[in-house]
Automatic annotation (TrEMBL):
Name this protein carries in UniProt: Bifunctional hydroxymethylpyrimidine kinase/phosphomethylpyrimidine kinase
Catalytic class of the enzyme: transferase
EC number(s) stated in the UniProt entry for this protein: 2.7.1.49, 2.7.4.7
Keyword Cytoplasm applies: no
Length: 289
């Protein structure tokens, strides 16, 4: 996965995750750091919210004062050159505005926004009143990675269930916000798990407005944190890749392998995590000398 020479860290992207926590390690900041490392980056993390959750659901959310969030962001950017940022759970409009303000002052070259709204368990991770704020934040991103329900919220339209309708809705979102969209098909009910990169302005390689990434649904309940892990992988791979479509292609292959091996981790009684380092571990000799 590492660009060329694994001992030459001049090319290692320095990637910041701005997100909430998951003490079971499957989603949020904890998953992001694993994903960044697995995809060849140096991971850093600024916590937006502390979430008491596990593989079965969310128990409670603690949001530190917003001044402390800004203090964390400035601590990183005053010291480290950030190559890419991944933004995940933001919880409320005060936090969104603080992150937007920081981006206006310190925008890294690559900004990936996962517009986290509701966890698989059905628990809300974004205040319902913050939807307008998240729509404004989308305009600051290079890439936004909504799942099907989140795409509908960004489009301000009802959720769709046919893949062709997903592509059309993603096209409208891209045109409205002037952003590249990765529409994720993990919520499709037809046995597929395809994704699509859509840019209404034709900013993809070769002036294209669409790249599709077909995928088959893996029969597993180990899908906790797939969206977090994918967006972090993309933030890590984009500085290393010639275009978004190359980053998505590699990230999706890595994610598919990580989902496949998630159940072997034996973590939790609900929707378990993915195995971020399955590819690395597969190449290791288990024998002790
Ligand atoms: N069961 C599955 N098998 C294969 N890929 C999946 C599966 N579930 C999700 N994915 C993939 O994981 C990524 C996250 O998708 P999705 O579940 O739609 O987002 P989120 O986790 O944000 O709800 C996408 O690349 C999607 O195609
Ligand atoms: C802190 C935190 N952030 C995001 C999520 C949601 O994770 P995501 O990868 O979008 O998907 P699911 O885990 O809900 O499938 C989370 N649970 N916690």
């Amino acid at each position: 996965m590492h660009p060329t020479d694994p001992t030459d860290h001049r090319q290692t992207p320095r990637v910041l995750s701005i997100a909430g926590t998951d003490p079971t390690g499957g989603a949020g900041i904890q998953a992001d750091l694993k994903s960044i490392a697995a995809n060849g980056g140096y991971g850093m993390a600024v916590v937006t919210a502390l979430v008491a959750q596990n593989t079965m659901g969310v128990r409670s959310v603690h949001i530190p004062p917003v001044e402390f969030l800004t203090e964390q962001l400035d601590s990183v950017s005053d010291d480290v050159e950030i190559d890419a940022v991944k933004i995940g759970m933001l919880a409320n409009s005060t936090i969104i505005e603080a992150v937007a303000d920081w981006l206006r002052r310190q925008r890294p070259p690559v900004v990936v926004l996962d517009p986290v709204m509701v966890a698989t368990s059905g628990d809300r991770l974004l205040d319902e009143r913050a939807v307008d704020a998240i729509r404004n934040l989308v305009r600051h991103a290079d890439l936004v990675t909504p799942n099907i329900p989140e795409l509908a919220v960004l489009a301000d339209e009802p959720a769709v269930s046919r893949w062709d309708d997903v592509l059309e809705q993603a096209h409208r979102v891209s045109a409205t916000y002037g952003v590249t969209v990765l529409a994720k098909g993990g919520h499709l009910a037809d046995g597929s798990a395809s994704d699509a990169l859509v840019d209404a302005g034709g900013r993809l390689s070769g002036g294209r407005d669409l790249f599709e990434f077909p995928g088959e649904r893996i029969e597993t309940t180990n899908t906790h944190g797939t969206g977090c892990s994918l967006s972090s992988a993309l933030a890590t791979l984009r500085p290393q890749a010639p275009g978004w479509e190359h980053a998505v292609d590699r990230a999706k292959r890595w994610l598919t392998e990580s989902i496949t091996h998630g159940a072997a981790l034996r973590v939790g009684h609900g929707n378990g995590p993915i195995s971020h380092f399955a590819g690395l571990w597969a190449g290791q000799d288990g024998a002790w000398s």
